[in-house]
Specification:
Shape: globular
Number of strands: 7
Protein name: SDR family oxidoreductase
Keywords: Oxidoreductase
Number of domains: 1
InterPro entries: NAD(P)-bd_dom_sf, Sc_DH/Rdtase_CS, SDR_fam
CATH superfamily: NAD(P)-binding Rossmann-like Domain
Structural class: alpha/beta
CATH architecture: 3-Layer(aba) Sandwich
Organism: Lacinutrix gracilariae
CATH topology: Rossmann fold
Pfam family, one: adh_short
Helix content: 40-55%
Length: 263
């Protein structure tokens, strides 16, 4: 697969992985639709891209699921079609289960799971009608195994795998692809923006996140996985080995994570 003449819609495009994707893909022969809550920041990202004339800015809030059908229709109208939806928007969480308000669990499910699913379902008839489409979903290694102090985040990411694995099976006949991207630690502001037990932001960086892949290195690996149309891609440093360790011995993985510095 190439991005040549494709229309790519990126959520969470105002910072981090989404911003890096926008800037990198602007060097490909494709058109981009950039979405997040902050229009003014999206405009700044657009101006940093190589071909701003091929980029549309479309603000949205994944938590406002009742708006996403109309926003999807607007997105299609931007360039007349959409070929790839990169579901990158979302939030993380850092707090113990016993202390975490159920409102935080609900927020993570509303944004990371239901927002992504609602947007993807709104676009599905367009993909089916065109007999072509590619969903790229930025999940996490936490969507394949869990870690302490991220219970709501892990739950939402696990749910994404269940939904999109089913979508891939149901719509294989419609030539609709699904690529689940599972980042390990990537040095972005995801930890600073993570919700704590009462719903406030953590505001400081995690040590492991600080030592993670640079966003530019991650983006290159992610784009390679999309071009290869991989079902799943695990992108990170040594933490990716946990995927394979879980298959061999979930109990051993449990012990390894307990000894780690992940907090």
């Amino acid at each position: 697969m190439t991005f040549n003449n494709k229309v790519v819609w990126i959520t969470g495009a105002s910072s981090g992985i989404g911003k890096s994707l926008a800037i990198t893909l602007s060097n490909e022969n494709c058109k981009l639709i950039l979405s997040s809550r902050r229009k003014e920041v999206l405009e700044q990202v657009k101006n940093e891209c190589n071909t701003p004339e091929n980029i549309s800015v479309l603000p949205l809030d994944l938590a406002e699921t009742d708006t996403l059908k109309n926003i999807t229709e607007t997105a299609i109208a931007c360039f007349g079609k959409i070929d790839i939806l990169i579901n990158n928007g979302g939030i993380s969480q850092r707090s113990s289960i016993i202390d975490t308000s159920i409102a935080v669990d609900r927020k993570l499910m509303e944004v990371d799971y239901l927002g992504t699913v609602t947007l993807s379902k709104a676009l599905l008839p367009h993909f089916v009608a065109n007999k072509s489409g590619h969903y790229v979903v930025v999940s996490s290694l936490m969507g394949k195994f869990s870690s302490p102090f991220r219970s709501a985040y892990c739950g939402a990411k696990h749910a994404l795998h269940g939904f999109f694995d089913a979508l891939r099976l149901e719509h294989y006949k419609d030539n609709i692809k699904v690529t689940m991207i599972c980042p390990g630690f990537v040095n972005t502001d995801v930890a600073r923006n993570a919700l704590t037990a009462d719903g406030s932001k953590q505001t400081h960086q995690d040590e492991m996140t600080e030592k993670g892949l640079t966003v530019d290195v991650f983006t290159k690996k992610m784009i390679h996985a999309i071009k290869k149309e991989k079902f799943e891609a695990y992108i990170g440093k040594k933490e990716t080995f946990a995927i394979y360790l879980k298959r061999i011995s979930p109990r051993l993985l449990h012990k390894v994570i307990l000894k780690s510095k992940v907090r």
